[in-house]
């Protein structure tokens, strides 16, 4: 599904054929599929309206108007029948039910990055709240939206919460002024709290491993600390230095390939595609010899939210690899082998890394840097895939298909689908 | 010498004025203890003569004699006068006295020499000592100066050290101050933030109230029709029962998670225990064969019996029940003990090897270096194998978690059967091939034997043929007669040879050589190879026939 202005276009994933076309009342800011892929919600924040469309019955429609409360965020509940709207200024979260047309309210939600978290099996929802300058977490049962637990957290200013994939542990971390990660069990007990250091800036990003065995904490001191689920103590610290000297680490460097021009082709009138391919630069990967020094950017000291520290963390689906990005060294992706807890590969690109995501089935990493190429890495090697087509296609973000066969590449106003062929065995 | 001087001066004052210069010479001698002494002790003949003449002249002979007698008697010598009171001189006594005086003179000279030598020695010693003293004084000066310099430096360094300590303290104080400032500012900011947040909350509340008041009309949800729930059930009322059920479900989820984790940990524990036991067994098996000394053997014997008991005990019990503290500790302690023993043993071996290298030792007590190295290599190999075994076992365990024991045994049996069958097949093939090879070898040997026989026969024939040839050459008239009977045996031979040629298939008929070669053969009577010769026979026979005819 994709939206253009106020239209919602639904296409088939394998053929990109248009299946449905819906028109909404206003410019759509956010769309989301329901978990059973039967409904799509379109949120228009300016008007405070959410419209829901059904794929099975194109005539069915639903409109939720928040009125003067305004709308800041909207999302589905895991069962696909409730919509959670966050009103302006985070006054409250309204839970609209599509089954019963009933409304529930969650008061005093916290205005933070990740204030609402659902467990992977969709049973429980954790909401961060703040009353009287104190942070609380409420756990709701998604079945009937009953409050299960409500407890306070020892944080100064809760920044985010995230469930472990096994649904039994909730990680909550504090604002970057204070390094504190709290781990709560499902029934609200504090299992452990972790603090690595006191004064410098703290946690920047957090990721759970798919088996819930590890919790990776990326912080502003350019390090990733991994805690284990048995003792909740740090088992290792992964450092991101600007110079790599260990000979066992493979460094893939993206280099520009000078475009090869066939002398025969020049005689003909060049078609548009050919012209674009002539002018666009090709690039390929080269294995660089260790020691390698990566491009390092010194952060500006007097600005808030400096571009320092580990900003992106992602575990691979088979729990074997961890990909990280250190914002000081914005062109490199660091891939760590979790079984050995050591750095195995570094990918150095020509431009700043915008986004990367692991394939949900295999240990394959797709990286985009804002150029018109998508980079794929797997333990077997890495390749550069050029997006064919006219003009510039600056890939800002990408998203894998759940089967791992294709992925969507998004630029500012275009998207394309990249299909990956399966090897014949 | 001094005595001599003092006595002579007053006595001879009247007699000899000439003596004065001599005595004055003599006076000088003691003061300068040099060769002048020697010189004076051995006065020159000139002085001697004048001296002698000065002392005793013709006028005062008696006086001088009496004087001499007096001197000698005072010195302890017998008188030179004869026994009688006359003025007769006892010559013998005089000579004796002279001799004694000479001896005394010699002695004195020697003593003087000695004294002079000692004097010299002492003088040189003193010089040497003075030099040493001077040098030592210099050294002392130098070291004193050095000490002063070092003290100065030490002082400077200490003052620098103090400065640095002071700086460090200052820095620490500053850091502490800054930290205090930071914490105070942090608390201040927190306080301000809280204040602002409260204000913000108040605004929010106000806004909320306004919104809530207004929203009754506008807020609505238009749905065309109700959508069924995802799971098809109806919504439930919110009651205490549902709350209780929620709690129950939540605890169930948590408990199942803990149970799963515990299961995993139990499995891991069991695996590790198995590995430890295996390691223990291996260590035990490694220890006994390497013991050389009786002492260690006796120790080992005791330990062995102990460990065997342990193993027996542990193996008897079911592995899954080994969860109590004491048994766990026992296992780990026993492994630690044995590992320590193995380590000690290896260390002892190392020491022995090193000692064996440095000194000669009893061969029995020392394991030779090569043996030691072999053993260590063997151990390393075993360790490698154990590790691999552990890895494969872990993998197998993970794979076979769900399998029963029966199925695993069956599987193992199947694998064994398969292998055995394969091996049997291979054996069969191998035996067949062996038989074939035997057969071929036999046939080859037979062929070789036959070949030998043939060769012998051919040689005989050739000899006969040559004889015939020779005979035919010598007897011209009989040539035709000779050839006909000789042709038959030849033809017969040919036939026999050709017949015999068939079985050995490897002997292929060769091309017949040139006639010139044949003529060479005839003329030279050299032995060619059997094949061409045999084949040549008909040609030879033909040629010879022609030749004979031409002849």
From TrEMBL, chain A:
SUPFAM superfamilies noted in UniProt: Tricorn protease domain 2
InterPro entries: Centrosome-WD_assoc (IPR052778), WD40/YVTN_repeat-like_dom_sf (IPR015943), WD40_rpt (IPR001680)
Assigned GO CC terms: microtubule organizing center; MWP complex
Gene3D superfamilies tied to this protein: YVTN repeat-like/Quinoprotein amine dehydrogenase
Protein name per its UniProtKB record: WRP73 protein
Source species: Helopsaltes ochotensis
Gene giving rise to this polypeptide: Wrap73
UniProtKB/TrEMBL annotation, chain B:
GO cellular component, one term: adherens junction
Polar residues bias (residue ranges): 507-528
Pfam families, alphabetized: ADIP (PF11559)
Leader sequence residues: none
Alphabetically ordered keywords of this record: Cell adhesion, Cell junction, Coiled coil, Cytoplasm, Cytoskeleton
GO biological process: cell adhesion; intraciliary transport involved in cilium assembly
Location in or out of the cell: Cell junction, Adherens junction; Cytoplasm, Cytoskeleton, Microtubule organizing center, Centrosome, Centriolar satellite
Family: Belongs to the ADIP family.
Record's protein name: ADIP protein
């Amino acid at each position: 599904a994709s939206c253009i202005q106020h239209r919602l276009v639904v296409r088939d994933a394998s053929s990109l054929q248009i299946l449905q076309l819906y028109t909404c009342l206003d410019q759509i800011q956010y769309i989301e599929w329901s978990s059973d892929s039967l409904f799509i919600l379109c949120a228009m924040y300016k008007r405070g309206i959410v419209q829901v469309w059904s794929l099975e019955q194109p005539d069915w429609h639903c409109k939720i108007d928040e009125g003067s409360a305004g709308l800041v965020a909207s999302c589905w509940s895991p069962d696909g029948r409730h919509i959670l709207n966050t009103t302006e200024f985070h006054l409250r979260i309204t839970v609209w039910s599509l089954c019963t047309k009933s409304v529930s309210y969650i008061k005093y939600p916290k205005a933070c990055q990740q204030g609402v978290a659902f467990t992977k099996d969709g049973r429980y929802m954790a909401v961060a709240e703040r009353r009287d300058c104190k942070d609380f977490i409420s756990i709701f049962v998604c079945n009937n939206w009953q409050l299960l637990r409500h407890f306070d957290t020892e944080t100064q200013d809760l920044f985010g919460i995230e469930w472990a994939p096994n649904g039994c542990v909730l990680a909550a971390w504090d604002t970057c002024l204070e390094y504190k990660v709290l781990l709560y069990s499902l029934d609200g007990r504090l299992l452990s709290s972790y603090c690595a250091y006191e004064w410098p800036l703290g946690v920047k990003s957090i990721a759970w491993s798919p088996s819930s065995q590890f919790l990776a904490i990326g912080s502003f001191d350019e390090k990733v600390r991994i805690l284990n689920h048995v003792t909740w103590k740090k088992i290792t610290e992964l450092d991101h230095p600007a110079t790599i000297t260990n000979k066992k680490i493979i460094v893939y460097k993206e280099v520009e390939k000078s475009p090869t021009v066939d002398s025969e082709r020049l005689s003909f009138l060049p078609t548009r595609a050919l012209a674009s391919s002539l002018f666009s630069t090709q690039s390929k990967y080269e294995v660089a010899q260790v020691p390698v020094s990566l491009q390092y950017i010194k952060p500006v000291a007097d600005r808030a939210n400096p571009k320092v520290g580990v900003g992106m963390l992602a575990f691979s689906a088979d729990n074997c690899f961890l990909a990280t990005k250190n914002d000081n060294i914005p062109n490199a992706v660091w891939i760590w082998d979790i079984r050995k807890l050591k750095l195995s590969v570094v990918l150095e690109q020509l431009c700043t890394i915008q986004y990367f995501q692991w394939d949900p089935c295999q240990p394959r990493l797709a990286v985009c840097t804002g150029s018109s190429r998508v980079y794929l890495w797997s333990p077997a090697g890495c390749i550069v895939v050029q997006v064919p087509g006219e003009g510039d296609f600056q890939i800002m973000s990408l998203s894998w298909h759940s089967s791992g066969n294709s992925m969507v590449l998004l630029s500012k106003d275009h998207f394309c689908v990249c299909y990956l062929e399966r090897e014949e065995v | 010498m001094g005595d001599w001087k003092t006595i002579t001066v007053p006595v001879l004052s009247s007699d000899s004025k000439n003596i004065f210069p001599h005595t004055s010479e003599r006076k000088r001698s003691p003061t300068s203890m040099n060769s002048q002494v020697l010189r004076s002790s051995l006065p020159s003949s000139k002085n001697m003569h004048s001296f002698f003449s000065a002392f005793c002249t013709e006028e005062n002979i008696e006086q001088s004699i009496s004087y001499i007698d007096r001197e000698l008697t005072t010195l302890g010598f017998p008188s030179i006068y004869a026994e009688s009171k006359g003025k007769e001189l006892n010559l013998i006594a005089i000579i004796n006295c002279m001799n004694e005086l000479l001896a005394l003179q010699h002695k004195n000279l020697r003593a003087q020499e000695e004294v002079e030598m000692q004097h010299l020695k002492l003088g040189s010693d003193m010089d040497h000592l003075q030099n040493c003293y001077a040098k030592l004084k210099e050294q002392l000066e130098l070291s004193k100066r050095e000490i002063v310099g070092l003290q100065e430096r030490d002082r400077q360094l200490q003052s620098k050290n103090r400065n640095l300590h002071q700086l460090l303290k200052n820095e620490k104080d500053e850091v502490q101050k800054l930290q205090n400032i930071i914490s105070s500012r942090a608390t201040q900011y927190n306080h301000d933030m809280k204040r602002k947040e409260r204000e913000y909350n108040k605004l929010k509340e106000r806004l909320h109230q306004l919104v809530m008041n207004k929203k009754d009309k506008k807020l609505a949800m238009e749905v065309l029709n109700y959508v069924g729930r995802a799971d098809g059930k109806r919504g439930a009322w919110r009651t205490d029962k549902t709350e209780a059920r929620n709690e129950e479900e939540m605890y169930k989820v948590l408990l199942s998670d803990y149970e799963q984790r515990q299961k995993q940990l139990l499995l891991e524990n069991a695996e590790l225990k198995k590995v430890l036991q295996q390691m223990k067994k291996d260590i035990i098996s490694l220890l006994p064969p390497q013991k050389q000394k009786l002492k260690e053997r006796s120790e080992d014997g005791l330990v062995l019996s102990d460990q065997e008991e342990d193993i027996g005990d542990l193996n008897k019990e079911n592995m899954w029940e080994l969860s109590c503290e004491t048994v766990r500790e026992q296992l780990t302690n026993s492994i630690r003990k044995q590992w320590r023993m193995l380590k000690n043993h290896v260390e002892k071996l190392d020491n022995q090897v090193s000692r064996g290298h440095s000194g000669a030792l009893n061969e029995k007590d020392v394991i030779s270096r090569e043996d030691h190295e072999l053993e260590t290599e063997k151990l390393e190999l075993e360790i490698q194998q154990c590790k691999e075994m552990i890895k494969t076992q872990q993998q197998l365990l993970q794979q076979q978690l769900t399998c029963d024991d029966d199925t695993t045994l069956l599987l193992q049996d199947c694998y064994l059967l398969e292998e055995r069958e394969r091996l049997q097949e291979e054996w069969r093939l191998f035996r067949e091939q062996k038989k074939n090879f035997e057969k071929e070898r036999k046939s080859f040997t037979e062929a070789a034997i036959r070949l030998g026989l043939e060769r012998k026969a051919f040689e005989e024939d050739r000899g006969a043929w040559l004889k015939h040839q020779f005979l035919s050459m010598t007897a011209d008239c009989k040539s035709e007669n000779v050839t006909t009977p000789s042709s038959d045996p030849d033809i017969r031979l040919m036939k026999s040879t050709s017949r015999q040629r068939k079985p050995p298939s490897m002997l292929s008929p060769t091309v017949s050589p040139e006639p010139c070669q044949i003529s060479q053969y005839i003329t030279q009577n050299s032995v060619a190879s059997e094949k061409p010769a045999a084949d040549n026979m008909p040609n030879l026979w033909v040629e010879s026939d022609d030749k004979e005819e031409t002849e």
